[in-house]
Automatic annotation (TrEMBL):
<keyword id="KW-0963">Cytoplasm</keyword>
<feature type="domain" description="ABC transporter">
    <location>
        <begin position="485"/>
        <end position="786"/>
    </location>
</feature>
<keyword id="KW-0547">Nucleotide-binding</keyword>
<dbReference type="GO" id="GO:0005524">
    <property type="term" value="F:ATP binding"/>
</dbReference>
<dbReference type="Pfam" id="PF00005">
    <property type="entry name" value="ABC_tran"/>
</dbReference>
<comment type="similarity">
    <text>Belongs to the ABC transporter superfamily. UvrA family.</text>
</comment>
<keyword id="KW-0267">Excision nuclease</keyword>
<feature type="domain" description="ABC transporter">
    <location>
        <begin position="182"/>
        <end position="477"/>
    </location>
</feature>
<keyword id="KW-0067">ATP-binding</keyword>
<keyword id="KW-0228">DNA excision</keyword>
<keyword id="KW-0677">Repeat</keyword>
<keyword id="KW-0238">DNA-binding</keyword>
<keyword id="KW-0234">DNA repair</keyword>
<protein>
    <recommendedName>
        <fullName>UvrABC system protein A</fullName>
    </recommendedName>
</protein>
<keyword id="KW-0227">DNA damage</keyword>
<dbReference type="InterPro" id="IPR003439">
    <property type="entry name" value="ABC_transporter-like_ATP-bd"/>
</dbReference>
<dbReference type="InterPro" id="IPR027417">
    <property type="entry name" value="P-loop_NTPase"/>
</dbReference>
Length: 797
């Protein structure tokens, strides 16, 4: 460090030039709804971004700062390597300065593949496989022999070698010993198809015997069978001979000419298995999922008992424990077992495995097991699982970006999460957190509050500074930061009870409970205590029960709130009726699409390793429809103008006057009820935040005819100010005669409940029991559980 002198000749240290880059500077950010946002974020500090859902938090943090950091890192690779990586466009921002390497820890669900488990998604399974290949007795082979993703194969054949200037052919044999169960192919479950759900045996194929989605008469899936020539398509399937029925259902893939085109014919059952059953159930479209649930039964594989592993892999043991036993253990128990192993030959491996398992416990996921399918983790569990590999990292001066890390966490666990965030910061990292919980906002070094509203009413910085400054600033977040819901003076009386007896799903220990009906019931408890197992596993699905879970909404940029909620259907019919034309004209994905951009509104230009360019279509000017379609009007508006309306504007438009459409108005009223009045009807689903997507799903299910509503953590992604609106919505549902069961950690929802069922006392095998049943006031007075302690502290008792 160089020195300069004051007038009194005292030397003054001059900062090194490298120490002057202490800020991440963002100037003129315009991603999504951001309106020329300028903000300066201190490095090596914990900065929390707040604001109502849809105010622009994710657009600033994820789509601008983190996205540009990743794009710049990708550009450091060679053009050859970049060709294998996703191309990222530069965010719409004037200046981004002072960026560091960004590590994104978001709530995207992990591994839709059925073979992905908690163990395979982390390094734990890989280390266990090596451990058993070294210490397991009997010794059965390399680590591959313990992997349920590797099949055992063997073969032989001639290979050509160059030897002494001559080509010589030699016979070679090879074999690979894998750990995959041959019966279920490493899935742990086998499927049995109910043939009666595939076709109506009393009908012929030409009469529409097939009842499978996508197999309608006239389509290629249908013509494959009607024009194969293997059987008469005009004969009822019941009259097929044994050979014809076998060809129809089970024939191996065969090349043949159908309708003059070379195609591969395959029996109906293997075709269904490959096209539908190979996918993760949660990744299916709703109508496909409904068909699969009806036609297919998934049962535990009888050969491997659901462990996914071959008999040989299960036979090799360390101190009486096989790798299947180890993966089935609760991780906290597995950590104890691994700590008891003392083998100098694998000491480094054991140390690394202990650290990984201890991280699971430390982060509050000790109740999981390594064989838990990754697709069954909640968004919060998935995010914390991704955090594990970063906890022991030696990297510093990294920017960690978190998306609501407290999602799915009990107040008791939020304190532990806060400690982890502070530990990452104290190692010299920049931590950026998008969060609504006041407990996390309270530990921030710096707060950026966006708003003032959502959608077009947001996108500006309302406040930047300390937590104390936020309280004094009187922004929407500042005003609600110290909000506390009060306990009800009186609670509703139940109209009946839903009896659950002997519930044993997952970690439940023979639970007997009566869930009151006709009231607002909150099921709570620490993460992993058995809440979802009790409600989802014991409340009978079917008529009268509406489940609104946290499964993500999947959709392309062509999907929007109008298409997802079914709003576009009555709107198209109203336009068609008013103009005397077909409804299909008013779909940008059908006959009404602009021919130049195929209804996308933009034209994409692929630039290989460079980021692709999307330009507004010159023909339709981004309106997505053919010019002739825009001549047709309803209430003075064309279809593109309707899709450009906000929910509030459309509710008024379809509620009265020439545009009056009761079916559309009902859907719009539900969207407004869940706080999405600011959304534009044609806004792509890909631009919605997590909280907006969940409320969109809730609004869609509100039209379902059901007497019992089961909501899984509906406050996820909700701003403090929106929680009050959600409570009002829940009250309206109950007052309308519905029974509402909410799985929730938020103290405001607990305080507002008529009845609380608290599970615990711990997670995993330490939970699974009812530790309290009663009113919120009784829980606060008793303070007999962890939940009671935190709720009493929350309401100030």
């Amino acid at each position: 460090m160089s020195m300069t002198t004051r007038t009194d000749d005292t030397p003054v240290p001059v900062p090194h030039a490298a120490d002057s880059h202490e800020l991440i500077r963002v100037h003129g950010a315009r991603e999504n709804n951001l309106r020329n946002v300028t903000v300066e974020i201190p490095k090596r500090r914990l900065t929390v971004f707040t604001g109502v859902s849809g105010s622009g938090k994710s657009s600033l943090v994820f789509d601008t700062i983190a996205a540009e950091s990743q794009r710049l890192i990708n550009e450091t690779y060679s053009a050859f390597v970049q060709g294998f990586m996703p191309t990222l466009a530069r965010p719409d921002v004037d200046v981004l300065d002072g960026l560091t390497t960004a590590i994104i820890v978001d709530q995207q669900r992990m591994g839709a593949d059925p073979r992905s488990t908690v163990g395979t998604a982390t390094d734990a399974n890989a280390m266990l496989r090596i451990l058993f290949s070294r210490l397991g007795t009997p010794h059965i082979g390399s680590p591959k022999a313990f992997s349920f993703n590797v099949a055992s194969i063997s073969g032989a054949g001639a290979v050509t070698l160059e030897r002494g200037g001559k080509q010589v052919k030699e016979r070679r044999e090879f074999s690979i010993t894998g750990g995959m169960c041959p019966r279920c192919e490493g899935r742990g479950t086998v499927t049995d198809i109910d043939l009666t759900q595939l076709y109506d045996a009393d009908k012929s194929l030409n009469e529409g015997a097939l009842t499978i989605p996508g197999y309608k008469p006239g389509g290629w899936n249908h013509r494959l069978y009607t024009e194969s020539g293997l059987y008469d398509p005009d004969k009822p399937i019941r009259t097929f001979s044994k050979q014809q029925l076998d060809d129809f259902l089970y024939r191996e893939p065969t090349r043949m000419k159908i309708a003059g085109i070379n195609m591969t014919y395959e029996g109906l059952v293997p075709r269904i298995q490959k096209s539908m059953l190979a996918k993760d159930r949660e990744a299916m479209q709703p109508h496909i999922r409904e068909f699969v649930d009806r036609a297919v039964t998934f049962t535990t594989c009888p050969d491997c008992a659901g462990t996914r592993l071959s008999e040989a892999a299960r036979s090799s043991k360390i101190k009486g424990i096989s790798i299947a036993d180890a993966c089935a253990m609760q991780i906290s128990d597995l950590a104890v077992w691994v700590r008891e192993l003392d083998e100098p030959s694998v000491a480094p491996l054991l140390a690394s495995l202990r650290d990984t398992l201890d991280s699971f416990v430390e982060i509050g996921l000790g109740y999981l097991s390594l064989d838990r399918p990754a697709g069954t983790l909640s968004g919060g569990e998935a995010q914390r699982t991704k955090m594990i590999r970063h906890l022991g990292s030696s990297l510093t001066d990294v920017t960690y970006v978190f998306d609501e890390p407290t999602a799915g966490l009990h107040p008791h666990d939020i304190r532990r999460m806060n400690d982890l965030l502070l530990r990452l910061r104290d190692k010299g990292n920049t931590v950026l957190v998008v969060e609504h919980k006041p407990e996390v906002i309270a530990i921030a070094d710096h707060v950026v509050d966006l708003g003032p509203g959502a959608g077009t009413a947001g996108g500006t910085v309302c406040f930047e500074g300390t937590v104390a400054g936020l309280r004094a600033a009187r922004t929407l977040t500042g005003r609600h930061l110290d909000d506390r819901a009060a306990l009800k003076d009186t609670v509703r009386d139940p109209s009946g009870a839903l009896e659950i007896r002997g519930a044993t799903t997952h970690n439940l220990k023979g639970v007997d409970v009566d869930i009151p009906l006709g009231v607002l019931t909150v099921v709570t408890g620490v993460a992993g205590s058995g809440k979802s197992s009790l409600v989802r596993g014991s409340v009978p699905a079917g008529a009268g029960v509406v489940f609104v879970d946290q499964a993500p909404i999947r959709g392309s940029r062509r999907s929007n709130p109008a298409t997802y909620t079914g709003l576009l259907e009555p709107v198209r019919k109203a336009f068609a009726k008013a103009n005397g034309v077909k409804p299909a004209l008013f779909s940008a994905n059908s006959e009404g699409a602009c021919p130049a951009c195929n209804g996308a509104g933009v034209v994409y230009t692929d630039l290989a390793i460079m980021a692709g360019v999307a330009t507004t279509c010159e023909e339709c000017e981004g309106r997505r429809f053919d010019a002739s379609v825009l001549e047709y009007r309803l209430g003075g508006r064309d279809i593109s103008e309707v899709l450009a309306m906000t929910v509030e504007q459309a509710e008024e438009f379809f509620g009265s006057g020439e545009g009056r459409t009761p079916a559309a108005h009902r859907i719009l009223r539900n969207l407004a009820d869940v706080g999405l009045g600011y959304l534009t009807l044609g806004q792509p689903l890909t631009t919605l935040s997590g909280g907006e997507r969940q409320r969109l799903k809730l609004a869609t299910h509100m039209t379902d005819k059901g007497g019992i509503y089961v909501l899984d953590e509906p406050t996820t992604g909700l701003h403090l100010a929106d929680v009050e609106q959600l409570l009002g919505l829940l009250d309206r549902l109950v007052d309308a005669g519905k029974s509402v069961i909410v799985i929730e950690h938020h103290q405001a929802v607990m305080a507002h409940a008529d009845w609380i069922i608290d599970l615990g006392p711990g997670a995993g095998h330490d939970g699974g029991r009812i530790v309290f049943e009663g009113t919120p006031a009784e829980l606060v007075a008793a303070r007999s559980t962890i939940t009671g302690e935190h709720l009493a502290e929350y309401v100030g008792r």
